[in-house]
Amino acid sequence: MAHTPALARTLGFAGILPQLACALAAWIGPEEWLWTALAIGWAYAALIFSFLGGLWWGMAAASPDEARRAPGWLWVAAVMPSLIALATYIPWVVGETWPGPSLTFLAIGITLSPLVDRRLVTLRPSWWMGLRVPLSLGLGASTFALALAS
Length: 150
Hints:
It is a single chain. By secondary structure, this protein is an all-alpha fold. The protein has one domain. Helix content is 73%, strand content 0%. It contains 8 helices and no strands. The longest helix is centred in the N-terminal third of the chain and has 28 residues, at 34-61.
């Protein structure tokens, strides 16, 4: 992580704080905070997961030449987080069990998302995985902790 730009490292780890705050509010805050913490935590996880898809789309679109062209599967992978995030919203809209299962799906997706990045060796900076892995594990774990509180 020594080669990771300082601003990327600082802002990246700061990005875990909202989800940690929601998990703490859900677990140890007053009972009246629970629903709000769950709803905000779901929204934050869905936004960040969608953001990851946007990063992959940007990497694919920025492929500079034939030798470093993005694989076709990356375009599909790039839209999946937004579609998955939207799907996790549907149970709330139709009155089914929510947000525990939805938060669990998002936690799994966020935690596994570095598997996509790992395959993008020619498209990502050399420091990328050193930042992505701990950020995804941190956000995935805090999202799962939130799911357990529901």
